[in-house]
Amino acid sequence: MKTLDLLKPDAGLRVFISGAATGIGAAMAEAFLEAGAAVYVCDINPVAVDAMKQKHPQIHAGVADVGKWEDVDAVMLDAQEKLGGLDILINNAGIAGPTAAVEDIAPDAWEKTINTNLNSQFYFLKRAVPLLKQSSTNPSIITVSSVAGRLGYQFRTPYASTKWAIVGLMKSLAIELGPSNIRVNAILPGVVEGERMDGVIAARAQALGLTVEEMREDYVKKISLRRLVTTQDVAAMALFLSSPAGRNISGQAISVDGNLEYL
Questions:
Q1: What predicted TM-score, i.e. pTM, was given to this entire model?
Q2: Which CATH architecture group holds 4-192+230-256?
């Protein structure tokens, strides 16, 4: 096989992506569809799920609150039926969580962030790993963490805590599942263009007493390349990790962030 051919994911991959009706998840779903994969996505927003299905009639999709085991169990059973198995799990779902000093964070806001960002990863893994063990097509798990999973992030402690935990989860599973030929890696996106980041910047600007424009400039100047990341940048990394070229990459926390130096 030629080296360039290794960069192409195997045709017919069966891929599940959580939180994938918009943003990074949607970009990854579209990239895998273009590569010839069968894709199932879930999202909490039924309107966004319907829009995704209308845009891509070949996609399989379900509605789920990923912080609830019952919802995850239901969509994973549906995905198993629709896809006939699983080769790639991408644990992407997550929320920004509150922006506040630790003493001002409400316990329910903390718990919601933990449930959505971290517990959901376990719920999907519990259902997906037995299916991945049956795959003979370069099976892989990609956990979506964040640059906040390698750097401290003041006023965003619930979010950062979950993203650091996801890296630990990935590192442990890479060791546990390696003998079953299942690779496990984490993608750590940086400052990603889009509505979600716009909301984060606005909330952080308010917390720090800055204008939105000042806050946005502050984020950009922390990036060595002086530009934001796109959802397509992250999707391209997911495709690479799922291709034959990534067959010996496991246990890695890979930043896609333009070298974000600090937060």
A1: 0.93
A2: 3-Layer(aba) Sandwich (3.40)
